[in-house]
Amino acid sequence: MENYDELRTLRHTASHIMAQAVKRLFPDVRLAIGPATDNGFYYDFDTERTFTAEDLEKIEAEMKKIVKENLPIKRFELPRDEALALVREMGEPYKEELINDLPEGEVISFYQQGEFTDLCAGPHLRYTGSVKAYKLLSVTGAYWRGSEKNKMLKRIYATAFKTKDELAAHLEALEEAKKRDHNKLGRELEYFTTVDVIGQGLPILLPKGARVIQLLQRFVEDEEERRGYLLTKTPLMAKRDLYRISGHWDHYLDGMFVLGDPNDEEKECFALRPMTCPFQYQVFLNRARSYRDLPMRFGETSTLFRNEESGEMHGLIRVRQFTISEGHIVCTPEQLEDEFKGCVELVQFMMKSVGFENDITFRFSKWDPENREKYIGTEEQWAEAEGMMEKILDGLGINYSVGVGEAAFYGPKLDIQMKNVFGKEDTLVTIQIDQMLAPKFGMEYTDRDGTKKSPYILHRTSLGCYERTLALLIEKYAGALPMWMAPEQVRILPITDRCIDRAYEVATELRAAGLRVEVDSRSEKIGYKIREAQMQKLPYMLMIGDKEIAEGTLSVRTRGGQDLGAHTLEQFLELVKTEAAPPRSGVSR
């Protein structure tokens, strides 16, 4: 057994020990599920009780007793009717539901340790005494089966390792992650906030956060323009008729915000857009096209809306309204490979520019032929599209994993994945091959031989979702963003009130040079001003006192505490010139 599997088995065993401890302390609790995860394990409980920090201490103490008892862990199987009778006798309705959902002929297994029995596929260790190093971490709410239509359960998160040293190292890393968590740090640094009366998954970008996203958007739009993209601006909503043509009405309706009754065919029904593709297609369809027009590269800073489940919301990483660097390339089949490579190169440039190049992984997301109702198109079309993407990726030498069932309903994807500080992976950027939707919209071009043909389409983002990118930037840099994207690049700190006028003069000159500058003119001690600027992660502080005014200099200090000494204004501008400027690829088409 691989080491990773051994660790998951240990954690799965620990989840049963935790559930046993909870049942001993709170017998009325009903059990839901308790899987191992990449970073630990959890168990969901149905109870009216709110688990407190004191409860977690009691549960840990009871787990210690169970471990010390070194109970043998025994596996047994039952026929469906006997399994159902057992969980009904145990008073576990969630287990009954799980059994009823198992396919006919599926093995139904249980694990027993002492007085505790649980429905489980396993595997587990042989004795409870084999679990030595564990820690209960937190309590949260979780809907049964992840659906807000179901009951809210209480979830206890925990972790376990083979040794106490490994556990201690992990807990130390968790503490560091908490310090970097954008959901905490981003609020403290006033990048964003959320308001109950506005709603979950609908963050307010405060001036600093809004400025960073504006800088990123300008950076992306300028780079895309150099690469031949045509800027579009399309509506935020459309009638259901548009989504019916694209297939989103049939395949994505649950994820959409619908305005009106979707079942009333007599009245107009609109939906907020969850994607931009069918809107940008209308630009192509605005007039007749020939092969000479292709490729056409459309880019748009798009605001999108997706009806995510409440339990999936997390800060800026997963929200219901977000902005994305979305684009579509309409091309001939012969142009597809070069255009796909251009998309990959653009993404690689973007990832390097923001410092993510060593943090991302690539996933080749394919369809699942065993679940055909999720997709449109024929097996031959999917085989062709996936074959093209595989050939391109292999030709580029990209090291990728394969995700079966992760494709869009109309085509395979290259997903660029990144983990947050807690190890949860999300998709940052996608590039998709689509040969299905152009015919649905009647998109055609006249080829060299005079015949009408359907183009291929690449759906792609270059930096992905700006809100998610901002969250990951805050976490990666612990709030100390690179200077070119910092909302405030320089703060000028006059040492005395008589230096304030000179501070504003310097600020005017620095702003004229393109820097984002503020003056702290408060009547506070200079040490206090410096500490506050450092806590706000500002790249540079410029102190101006009587000596600096007399000598025509600035005293330069970095956010890391480094004193760079006296600089003239011209010397400082030369010092930060490269650091303050957005990256440039030099690519143009």
Structural class: alpha+beta
Side-by-side strand order of the widest sheet: 10-14-15-22-19-18-16-17
Uncertain spans: none
* CATH architecture label of the largest domain: 2-Layer Sandwich
Domain unit count? 3
Bulk shape: globular
Distance from first to last alpha carbon: 52 Å
Tell me the helix content: 25-40%
Q: The CATH topology of the largest domain is what? A: BirA Bifunctional Protein, domain 2
CATH class of the largest domain: Alpha Beta
- Largest β-sheet summary: 8 strands, mixed
Please describe the structure with a list of short key phrases separated by commas or semicolons.
37% helix, 18 helices, alpha+beta, Threonyl-tRNA Synthetase, Chain A, domain 2, 589 residues, five-stranded mixed beta sheet
Outline of this structure?
The protein is α+β, with helices and mostly antiparallel strands and 589 residues long.
